[in-house]
Design brief:
Distance between the termini: 27 Å
Structural class: alpha+beta
Order of helices and strands: HHEEEEHHHHHE
Strand order of the largest sheet: 1-2-5
Shape: globular
Largest sheet: 3 strands, mixed
Oligomer: single chain
Helix content: 10-25%
């Protein structure tokens, strides 16, 4: 299930006047730009703590829509799934710098390609921010081969 906000009925941009903690559930969910980047497998260097992103996606991610195919049960089906709330966003290293949740937590504005700003859900794809067509499902990658899938295109805005 995903939520959407009809911006034509909004007198103000809620994300500019509310904190993450003050947002309603539909407002919170509408911050997701649909890029799918948080659904990519990541590797952490145990010595340095540095995080490396791969092009290997969660088995529940639809590569075309960049959305979870079972959003309501994702945590049950994928226990390591990253479920965000206002507190976790402020401390997560697993979110790309382009992520609306992270941007707002850091006091940065939403980018012009964000669907809430552009009023078009496709701008995230048109601008090349999403992972559409760039991933392989973890169903097709052996765990020992995941290092071969580290990418450097991931966090480019």
């Amino acid at each position: 299930m995903s939520y959407s906000i009809d911006m034509s009925k909004q007198s103000n941009a809620f994300w500019e006047i509310k904190t993450l903690e003050e947002m309603t559930q539909p407002e919170w969910e509408s911050l997701c730009d649909g890029c799918g980047r948080c659904c990519l497998n990541k590797l952490e260097d145990i010595d340095t703590g540095e995080l490396y992103f791969t092009n290997v996606s969660c088995r529940l991610l639809n590569d075309h829509t960049c959305r979870c195919e079972n959003y309501l049960q994702r945590k049950t089906l994928v226990p390591e799934c990253l479920v965000l709330d206002a507190a976790s966003v402020k401390h997560s290293t697993a979110l790309p710098s382009s992520c609306a949740y992270r941007r707002l937590a850091e006091g940065r504005p939403l980018p012009t390609w964000h669907p809430l700003v552009s009023h078009n859900v496709n701008t995230v794809h048109v601008q090349g921010i999403s992972i559409r067509g760039k991933t392989i499902s973890e169903r097709h990658v052996h765990i020992d081969q995941i290092e071969d899938h580290i990418v450097d295109w991931f966090d480019h805005e």
